[in-house]
Amino acid sequence: MNILENTAKAGGKFLKQSVKNNGNFLFISAAIGWALASMAQTIGLIANKDIGKEEKKFLVPQEIMDGTFNIATYAAVTIPIMNMASRLAGKRFPDNKQAVEGARTLAAIAGGVISSNIITPILRNKSSVVIKKIMEKKNLTPPPPEIYDGRTYPNFRAKQPLNMQSYINFTKSMPHSSSLTI
Questions:
Q1: Is pLDDT at 88 greater than 90 in this prediction?
Q2: What is the per-residue pLDDT for 63?
Q3: Between these two residues, 161 and 135, which has the higher pLDDT value?
Q4: Backbone torsions φ then ψ of 103, nearest 5 degrees
Q5: Separation CA 21–CA 25 (nearest Å)
Q6: Cα separation, 19 vs 39, whole angstroms
Q7: What pLDDT shows up at residue 174?
Q8: Where are the domains of the chain?
């Protein structure tokens, strides 16, 4: 058997099992979707000509870690919730497979919501701080501008003390800056 036939056979088996087990199908298809979305985002960052090499050195590893955290937290949160839901539904409705499957499906949805909306953002922010510190130690992040150029947030330091002209230039560059008057 060649690879194509094996893949088709495995896909058919997966689809047959999916009809019987909606919760597992939802879990697996969501994990595959997260993996494909992460790969597309990473490839998009790499291929984007508007992003400089220095920015890519930070953004690409961050996106890879973000995708890894998304998939890992989804699995780590959802699988125990699905198992617990099916155990509880099995005890409550011992002869009703449909109730157990319904509980697994709802648990897969709940696990996805909890992991993607609560846990993953926390881990993503923590990992970004770690990556940034590593990049700074290796001196891979570009230094902030010495003089405020009017396009980015001003970095007020001893070399450039806070003064009214820097603030005015900063406010002019912001959206809705016409509503800011000094």
A1: yes
A2: 84
A3: 135
A4: -65, -40
A5: 6
A6: 28
A7: 56
A8: 8-142, 144-182
